[in-house]
Amino acid sequence: MTADTAPPKESAAPDRAEEVPGDLRMARVLWPVMLASAVGLLPFTVFSTYLVPIADAADTGVAAMGQLRGLGGLAALAVGTALAPFIDRVRKEWAAAGGLALLAVSALLGATGEFLFLAAFCLLVGAGTAVLNPALTAAAADRFGNGAAAGRAATLVTATQSFTALMAAPLVALPALLWGWQGNLLAVSIAAALLTAVFYVYGRRSHRDPARGTPRLGYGASFKALAAVPGAVPLLLVALLRTAAFMGYLAYLAAFYDERFALSPGPFALVWTLSGAAFFLSNLFTGRAMSAAAPRITAERMMTFALVVGLGSLVGFFFTHTLWLALLLTAVTAAAHATVAACVITLLVRRCATLRGTALSINAAGMSFGVFAGAGLGGIGLGLAGYPGTALALGALTLGALVAALWVRRPA
Q: Burial of 28 by CB count in 10 Å (0-12 exposed, 13-18 middle, 19+ buried)?
C-alpha cells in the first residue's frame, strides 16, 4: 500500500479521560448546523404531507406525482457517490452552503405547482440533501476532534433530523393553514437561502484547512483509502441494509394497520407519532451513551444487540393479531433501528478520521438507495405471500445487516 492510498490513522476508541460536553453546550455551538439539518428535511416532508393537493395543482394523478420522489432518491445516490471524496477536500461549511442553495432553488421551483418544475424540485432536493447531510454531520464532528465528543456531535445532528420528522405536524401543517403548501415551500426556500449565506460566511471565517496534515488523495484513492479503514465497509453495509429493512417496513405500516386492525388515517397518525417518538428518543440517548467516558457497552456490541432485537420485532410484527402487541412491536422496532443508526454514525466518525466526509457521503447515498430497495422488496414479498412474505423479505435484509455487523471488530 502506498502512502497515497494508506488509510488515515484510526481513532479506534475514545480517550477514557476525555470530557464530553453536555448536549446544551454542544447545541449552543452547533445550532446553525442543527437548524440547517432540520430545514433540509422539510422539502420532502411538505411534498409527502400535501401529495394530493400538489397532484391536483399539477393536474396529474397521485401515483404519478408520488413516483417523482424516486427521482430524488436516484439523484441522491448518484450525487452522493460521485461527490463523496470532495466533501473532505473543501470546507464543510461551504459544502453545506452549496447543498442549502440547491434546496432554496428547488423549493422555489416546487412552489410553482407545475409538473416539470416539481420533477426538477425532486431531483434538486435529492442532490442537495446528498451534499448537505454528510457535510453537516462531518462539520459537527470536526468541531470536537476525533474522540467521543465528535461522535456525540454527529449523532446530535441526526437526532435533530428525527425530531424534525416527529414534529412534522406543527412545523408543516399548522403554517399551511395560513398560507398553504406553496407558502410552506416558499418559507423553506427563504430559510435555506438565509442559511446559505450563514454557512458561506462561516466558511470564510474558518481557519481550518481540510487538507492540512493529510495526503492529497486522488479520486479513486479516496475510495481505496476508505475501504482500507477497519470496519468501514461493513458499517456502510449495515447502514444500507438496515435502512432498506426499516423503510420497507414503514412503507406498508399504514396498510397493515388498516387491514389487520381497521385503523383509519386519523387514529393511525398516533401510531406514526409513537414510532417517530421511539426513534427520536432512542437515537438521542444512544448517542449520549456512546459518548460516555466509560460506556458500559461498546458501540459495536450495542449495534449487534439492537439488530437482533430489531430482527425479532420486525418479523414478529407482521404475524401479530393483537393491537397492543402490534403497538409495542412498532415502538421496539423503531427504537432498535434508531440505536443501530446512532452506532453506525458514531463508529464512522471515530474510525474514518480525515475521511469522515467521504464515509458519511457514501453512507447517505447508500441509505437513499435503501429507501427504495426496501419498499420494492417488501412489495414483492407482499405480492407473492402476503404479509408473511413481507416479513421474510425485510427480515432477510435485517439478517444481512446483522451479519455485516458481526464483521465489524473493535480495534485493539
A: exposed
Indicate which CATH number applies to the domain containing 266. Answer: 1.20.1250.20
72 with 105, same domain: the answer is yes
- Residues 98 and 79: their CA atoms lie apart, in Å, by 13
Find the Cα–Cα–Cα–Cα dihedral 262, 267, 272, 278, rounded to 10°.
-110
pLDDT digits (tens, 9 = 90+) for 147-182: 677 878 888 888 888 887 777 666 777 787 788 889
Count of the separate structural domains present in the chain? 2
15 found inside a domain = no
Collapsed DSSP state (helix, strand, coil) of residue 58: coil
Q: Are 340 and 303 in contact (CB under 8 A)?
A: yes
- What is the dihedral angle through the alpha carbons of 377, 380, 385, 387, rounded to the nearest 10 degrees? 50
Does residue 2 lie in a domain region?
no
pTM of the complete model beyond 0.85? no
Q: What three-state secondary structure class fits 224? A: helix
Q: Evaluate whether 385 touches 392 at the Cβ level (below 8 Å).
A: yes
Could you tell me if residue 345 is inside a domain?
yes
Count CB neighbours of 213 within 10 A: 7
Q: Which residues of the chain have pLDDT under 70?
A: 1-23, 63, 145-147, 168-170, 206-222, 265-266, 292-294, 410-412
Say if residues 76 and 168 touch (Cβ distance below 8 Å): no
Distances (CA, A) of 137 to 194, 218, 351: 19, 23, 15
381, 394 contact by CB (below 8 A): yes
User: Is residue 122 domain-shared with residue 256, that is, in the same domain?
Assistant: no
What letter represents residue 223's amino acid? F
Residues 78 and 198 in one domain: yes
